[in-house]
From TrEMBL:
<keyword id="KW-0813">Transport</keyword>
<keyword id="KW-0472">Membrane</keyword>
<dbReference type="Pfam" id="PF01061">
    <property type="entry name" value="ABC2_membrane"/>
</dbReference>
<keyword id="KW-1133">Transmembrane helix</keyword>
<dbReference type="GO" id="GO:0016020">
    <property type="term" value="C:membrane"/>
</dbReference>
<feature type="transmembrane region" description="Helical">
    <location>
        <begin position="115"/>
        <end position="136"/>
    </location>
</feature>
<feature type="domain" description="ABC-2 type transporter transmembrane">
    <location>
        <begin position="4"/>
        <end position="193"/>
    </location>
</feature>
<feature type="transmembrane region" description="Helical">
    <location>
        <begin position="85"/>
        <end position="103"/>
    </location>
</feature>
<dbReference type="InterPro" id="IPR013525">
    <property type="entry name" value="ABC2_TM"/>
</dbReference>
<dbReference type="GO" id="GO:0140359">
    <property type="term" value="F:ABC-type transporter activity"/>
</dbReference>
<protein>
    <recommendedName>
        <fullName>ABC-2 type transporter transmembrane domain-containing protein</fullName>
    </recommendedName>
</protein>
<feature type="transmembrane region" description="Helical">
    <location>
        <begin position="256"/>
        <end position="275"/>
    </location>
</feature>
<keyword id="KW-0812">Transmembrane</keyword>
């Protein structure tokens, strides 16, 4: 609880009330990235608890046949749900409002709807984190082995989710990782919910300044480019020192920038490693 709350508050006040200029949008985007780094720490906290419960089950319930291994795995996933939900609530209020992300929805008049959507994405993120932790440790005896695999996969997921580098800039193999990583789609959904359909107000040092050619004014010179690529001019009429904004709304900015699967894979991994298998000879004897 302290991990999710304190880190979310820390991120929220580092990027406190980020504006909607280019630097502000980058700050809002990186606040989402920083929030996603909780993923790794939560996974490392869940793994040892699962190993303890599994050891007890293997030594007692499984030998007495109180319930099957499938029930054990699913119960471990279900019991994490209330805690995941509570953590999602704390993270939402500790991060969403200090950063001022709700202000992006004021232009569209959908502050409540977009706030609920962001919360649901955070809840999915926490549920995904819990199921991922069980997945990576289900096939290992030692928690350290599962932790190492979790570290590797979480690092790849975070670094290749599209925030640090756009997919177009990645080599072919890493594009594959980018597309199969669920973190990519969680981040995509959060960015769309937080930043979409909002106008951009440029800071004075973010305008592109130039002189138009062919004895034309700023609008005549830039009209074709604006129609094709977007952006806007601070003033259409001057014949020198034109001030141009390449991006006019956050949708243009966004263009530059698996829970069920985890549960099924956790069951398969546990079955492969922990459930005794009958040999071919034993099967013939039974017949």
């Amino acid at each position: 609880m302290a991990l999710c709350t304190i880190i979310s508050l820390f991120i929220g006040f580092i990027f406190f009330r980020a504006p909607t200029n280019i630097q502000g949008l980058q700050s809002q985007m990186f606040s989402i990235f920083c929030l996603m780094t909780i993923f790794r720490q939560v996974v490392q906290q869940v793994i040892p608890q699962f190993v303890i419960q599994r050891t007890i089950y293997e030594a007692r319930e499984r030998l007495l046949k109180v319930y099957t291994w499938k029930v054990f795995i699913l119960s471990q996933i279900v019991v994490e749900m209330p805690w995941n939900s509570l953590m999602a609530v704390l993270m939402f209020f500790s991060w969403y409002y200090p950063v001022g992300l709700y202000r992006n929805a004021e232009e569209t008049g959908k502050v409540t709807e977009r706030g609920v959507l962001v919360f649901l994405f955070l809840w999915l993120f926490m549920v995904y984190t819990g199921t991922f932790a069980i997945l990576v440790v289900s096939g290992f005896d030692l928690p350290e082995a599962g932790g190492n695999l979790g570290d590797l996969m979480s690092t790849l997921s975070l670094k290749l989710c599209g925030i640090l580098s756009a997919s177009e800039a990645l080599p072919r193999f890493w594009i594959f990782i980018y597309r199969v990583s669920p973190m990519t789609y969680l981040v995509d959904g959060l960015l769309s919910s937080v930043l979409a359909n909002t106008g951009i107000t440029y800071a004075d040092n973010e305008f592109l300044t130039f002189d138009p050619a062919f004895n034309s004014n700023c609008f005549e010179y830039m009209k074709i480019h604006i129609d094709k690529h977007g952006g806007y001019l601070l003033d259409d009429n001057p014949t020198s020192n034109c001030q141009f904004c390449p991006i006019s709304e956050t949708n243009q900015y966004l263009k530059t920038v698996y829970i069920i699967c985890n549960i099924g894979a956790s069951l398969l991994s546990y079955w492969l490693y922990w459930v005794p298998k009958k040999s071919a000879g034993e099967g013939k004897k039974d017949k």
